[in-house]
Design brief:
Rossmann fold, single chain, 3 domains, binds guanosine-5',3'-tetraphosphate, Elongation Factor Tu (Ef-tu), domain 3, 31 strands, 561 residues
Length: 561
C-alpha cells in the first residue's frame, strides 16, 4: 500500500493523537497547502509547464514523461481504450509535490478533446489559478472562458507569459491587451531580459534580483544553472551586456510609473494578477515563478455553506465532490468521485454523513489521484483532493461531513455551465426507450450531461427525443458509451446547429417579449429553467447590448441560475 508522497510532518502523527494535536496539525498542514489549476488555450504550453513544475518540485528528475500522457489523451478513441485498459481513469487528476516547505496541489484541467464541464468544475476546487499565455497570442478563446469562471468567483489569478525564448509581442503591449480584454490589472513580478533579442533571464521585482539562465540542452529536461544577483552585482555585469541591462532599467521604470505597490488585497479579490515571464520549454523563469507562487498564493480558505462559512480549521472533516469519473470498464460499475477537503483531517475508512440525504457513508478505499499511479490515501488535509470509489450514491456538488448532526452543513451548489454543443439523442432500439430515459436522468443528476426539452411540459419519458448539451465533444462520447454499457440503451446523436446558450431570468412576459422580438429558440433545462440559444457569439453580444438598452428587464446567465 502506497501513501501520498512522504511528508516528514505527517509521519510524526499517530492514530491516538489528542483532539488538540489534530487541530494544531490541521492548521499547520492547511497553511502549507497551495491548491491551484492552470487555465490556458490549447498549445499555450500547459503540459510543458506542468512537467517543469514537477521537475522543480522534485517530483520527477527528468522531464519528458508527462508528454507521453498527453499524446495518449489527444484522441478520443485512445482515451477510451486507455480507460478500458486501466479500469478507471487516471488521465485527469491531481499532481502533488513539495516545494519550499509547501505542499503544492496542481489540479489538472482537461483540455483539447477532453475539455468538458469537469474543466470548469475543477476550477471551483482550486484556491488560485495560473493563466498561461502564449507570448504571440495573448488571451485566446479558451483562456477567456476559463478566466471568466475564476473571475466570477474572485479566485486569485497569476499570469505566466510563456514561450519568451522566441520572439513575441512586446511585453508591455501584451499586458495592456490582457488588461483591456479581461479587465484585470497585470502586476509584473518577473520581467524578461533580452540580450540582442535573445531571452537570457528575468528580473524579479520582489527580490530585486536578476536571474540569468544558462541554456541547457534544447528541451530543458533538467534543472538549469542560474546566475543570480542584484542589478550591479559583478557576476551579472560579467554575463549580461550593458545594453540589455540598460533596456531592463528603462522597462522597470515604465512599469514602476504605471503601477503602485503590489496590493495583496486586490490580488486576493481577483482584480490584480501577479505576472511572470518565462519559457516552459527551456525552463527559463520557471523556478522564479514557483518561488514567488508559493509565497503569494493563498492557502485554503473558508468555503460558504448553508450554516455559514466553513474554515479549514473548523472542527471535523468536511469536503465536497466536484467531479465524477465513470468507470469505462463495463464489468466494474464503480466510479471515482473527486472530493476536495475543505476542513479537518480526512482519514481512510472514516464514517461521514452525506449531507443531501443525511445518510452515513464509509469512505473505505480513498485513492490519491496522483497522475501517474493510483495509490491509497491514508489521510488528507484542507486543500487536498482524494478520490472515493463509489457505486452510485454520490453526485457532483455533494457535501460530506464528519458527524451526524440533524441538519448537516451543505456547501453551495456547483453550477451547471453553458454547454457548447447540442444534439438530439435518438435511441437506436425503440424497445429500450425507458432505459434510455433512466440513463439520461441518472447521468444528468450525476452531472455527466445536461438534458434540455423544447417544451416546458415535456419531461424524460414523454414527447420527442430529448436534447443533450455538453461543454466538450468528449462528454457526448462518454455519454453514448455509458448509455449503452450501463443502461443497455444504444443511441446516436443528431447534432443541432444552435449554440451559445444563456439561461434567462426575469418576468415571464419580459422573457416572452425578448424571445419573440429576437426570434430566438428556447429550451428548458431539467429543472424547468428557460435557456435561449444564439446562432453565434455576435448575435449573443448584440442581445446582451439590447437587454441593457431595454433597461435589463431580463438577465442572461452563462451558468444555471
Ligand atoms: P498544451 O498542453 O497547452 O496544449 O501545450 P504543450 O505543453 O503541449 O505545448 C504546445 C507546443 O508548444 C509544443 O510544441 C511545445 O513544445 C511548445 N512549447 C511549450 N512551451 C514552450 C516554450 O516555452 N517555448 C517554445 N518555443 N515552445 C514551447 P509542439 O511542436 O506541439 O510539440 P513538440 O514537438 O515540441 O513536442
Amino acid at each position: 500500500m502506497t501513501l501520498l508522497p512522504t511528508d516528514p510532518m505527517a509521519t510524526a502523527d499517530t492514530g491516538d493523537a489528542t483532539g488538540d494535536d489534530v487541530a494544531a496539525r490541521v492548521a499547520r498542514e492547511a497553511a502549507r497547502r497551495r491548491t491551484f489549476a492552470i487555465i490556458s488555450h490549447p498549445d499555450a504550453g500547459k503540459t510543458t509547464l506542468t512537467e517543469k513544475l514537477l521537475l522543480y518540485g522534485g517530483a520527477i528528475h527528468l522531464a519528458g514523461s508527462v508528454k507521453a500522457r498527453r499524446a495518449a489523451r489527444h484522441a478520443t478513441s485512445d482515451w477510451m481504450k486507455l480507460e478500458q485498459e486501466r479500469g478507471i481513469s487516471v488521465t485527469s487528476s491531481v499532481l502533488q509535490f513539495d516545494y519550499a516547505g509547501c505542499k503544492v496541489n496542481l489540479l489538472d484541467t482537461p483540455g483539447h478533446a477532453d475539455f468538458s464541464e469537469d474543466t470548469y468544475r475543477t476550477l471551483i476546487a482550486a484556491d488560485s489559478a495560473v493563466m498561461l499565455l502564449d507570448n504571440r497570442k495573448g488571451v485566446e478563446e479558451r483562456t477567456r472562458q476559463l478566466f471568466e469562471v475564476c473571475h466570477k468567483r474572485r479566485t486569485p489569478i497569476f499570469t505566466f507569459v510563456n514561450k519568451c525564448d522566441r520572439a513575441g509581442e512586446d511585453p508591455l503591449k501584451l499586458l495592456d491587451d490582457v488588461e483591456k480584454d479581461l479587465g484585470i490589472t497585470c502586476a509584473p513580478v518577473t520581467w524578461p531580459i533580452f540580450d540582442e533579442d535573445r531571452f537570457v533571464g528575468v528580473y524579479d521585482r520582489l527580490t530585486e534580483h536578476v536571474l540569468l539562465f544558462e541554456r541547457g540542452e534544447s528541451r530543458g529536461a533538467q534543472q538549469l544553472a542560474t546566475i543570480e544577483g542584484g542589478l550591479d552585482a559583478p557576476e551579472i555585469l560579467e554575463h549580461c551586456s550593458p545594453g540589455a541591462l540598460d533596456k531592463l532599467r528603462e522597462d522597470l521604470e515604465l512599469i514602476e510609473i504605471g503601477l503602485g505597490a503590489f496590493d495583496r488585497g486586490k490580488f486576493l479579490a481577483g482584480d490584480l494578477s501577479p505576472t511572470f515571464f518565462g519559457s516552459a520549454l527551456t525552463n527559463f523563469g520557471v523556478e522564479p515563478f514557483l518561488r514567488e507562487f508559493v509565497q503569494l498564493a493563498p492557502p485554503p480558505g473558508a468555503r460558504e455553506a448553508s450554516t455559514g462559512p466553513i474554515e479549514p480549521t473548523s472542527p471535523g472533516f468536511a469536503g465536497f465532490t466536484f467531479k465524477i469519473q465513470a468507470n469505462m470498464d463495463p464489468r466494474h460499475r464503480d466510479r471515482m468521485v473527486f472530493v476536495r477537503v475543505v476542513s479537518g483531517r480526512f482519514t481512510a475508512g472514516m464514517d461521514v454523513t452525506l449531507a443531501r440525504t443525511g445518510k452515513p457513508i464509509r469512505l473505505a478505499a480513498p485513492q490519491s489521484v496522483m497522475a501517474r499511479e493510483r495509490t491509497v490515501v491514508d489521510e488528507a488535509f484542507p486543500g487536498d483532493v482524494v478520490g472515493i470509489v463509489d457505486k452510485g450514491q454520490l453526485r457532483i456538488g455533494d457535501t460530506l461531513v464528519e458527524g451526524s448532526g440533524k441538519a448537516p452543513p451543505q456547501f453551495r451548489d456547483i453550477p451547471r455551465f453553458a454547454p457548447e454543443h447540442f444534439a438530439r439523442v435518438i435511441g437506436t432500439d425503440p424497445m429500450r426507450r425507458k432505459q434510455l430515459d433512466t440513463g439520461l436522468a441518472q447521468l444528468t443528476e450525476e452531472g455527466a450531461t445536461q438534458v434540455f426539452f423544447s417544451d416546458p411540459d415535456v419531461k424524460l419519458g414523454s414527447g420527442p427525443a430529448p436534447i443533450v448539451g455538453a461543454v466538450g465533444q468528449l462528454q457526448f462520447d462518454v455519454m453514448l458509451f455509458r448509455l449503452e454499457s450501463e443502461y443497455g440503451a444504444p443511441a446516436r446523436l443528431e447534432a443541432i446547429r444552435h449554440g451559445n446558450p444563456r439561461w434567462i431570468t426575469g418576468d415571464r412576459k419580459a422573457i416572452d417579449k425578448f424571445c419573440e422580438r429576437s426570434g430566438r429558440s428556447r429550451l428548458y433545462d431539467a429543472k424547468g429553467n428557460t435557456v435561449v440559444l444564439f446562432e453565434d457569439r455576435w448575435a449573443l453580444r448584440t442581445a446582451i447590448e439590447q437587454v441593457a438598452r431595454d433597461g435589463n428587464a431580463v438577465t442572461l446567465h452563462d451558468e444555471a441560475p
